[in-house]
């Protein structure tokens, strides 16, 4: 049984969930950067989380290692993020019960974001063998995570939760740009999967392959095609 291209589903799930959270981080559309983001819980669980993980499993089935790794990992990120917002998981309650200072909570959040910054940078490096659109997506996502990490570490150092509001806002705008690139790539994949599309969108191809290792024979082989 043939499996359809799961890329647009994974990209769309990532884009929509990222867009909603980034609007809160940026403080636009009438929301504040300090407003509760619990509205994201359902999206993080079912669309950003479950749908992306399913897309990742289908990418495994069609042999796309990059897509499988990306969708499964970021789907797990959204599920992990949702646990912070669901009281029954006890994440916030554990800090409250221990009367943990805000600086400790910020430090824990910063380490969480730092780990995702590192992983996303690695995905950016790997994306240089896919398309320009995807490479820009992971570049912007790396910047988003890096700014959020800096804001959390900075707020901890100063002991002021609102001291890096502008950094959060900038991260939010980079997140919105990331979501736009993901939606663009998703639409390009949707149109490309149709036998007679109304129009097509260019995603850009890198003219060179970057090969690490002593073998020169592998450098002459054609680049791996991306289905997105």
Compute the separation of the termini in Å: 21 Å
Strand content: under 5%
Summed up, the helix count is 7
What is the arithmetic mean of pLDDT?
85
Quaternary structure annotation: single chain
- Spans of at least 5 consecutive residues with low confidence: 210-228
Number of strands: 0
Rough outline: globular
Structurally, the number of domains stands at: 1
By secondary-structure content and strand pairing, the structural class works out as: mainly alpha
Query: Helical residue percent?
Result: 55-70%
Nearest-angstrom radius of gyration?
19 Å
SSE topology string: HHHHHHH
The major β-sheet equals: none
Organism: Adiantum capillus-veneris
GO molecular function: acetate transmembrane transporter activity
Main location: membrane
Subcellular location: Membrane
Q: Could you characterize the architecture of this molecule?
A:
By secondary structure, this protein is mainly α. It has one domain. The protein contains seven helices and no strands. It has helices spanning 7-26, 40-61, 65-85, 91-97, 102-127, 132-158, 165-192. Helix 1 (7-26) runs parallel beside helix 3 (65-85), helix 1 runs antiparallel to helix 7 (165-192) and helix 2 (40-61) packs antiparallel against helix 3 (65-85). The longest helix has 28 residues, at 165-192. The protein is globular, with a radius of gyration of 19 Å. The chain starts with 6 loop residues before the first helix and ends in a 36-residue tail after the last helix. The model is unreliable at 210-228 (pLDDT under 50).
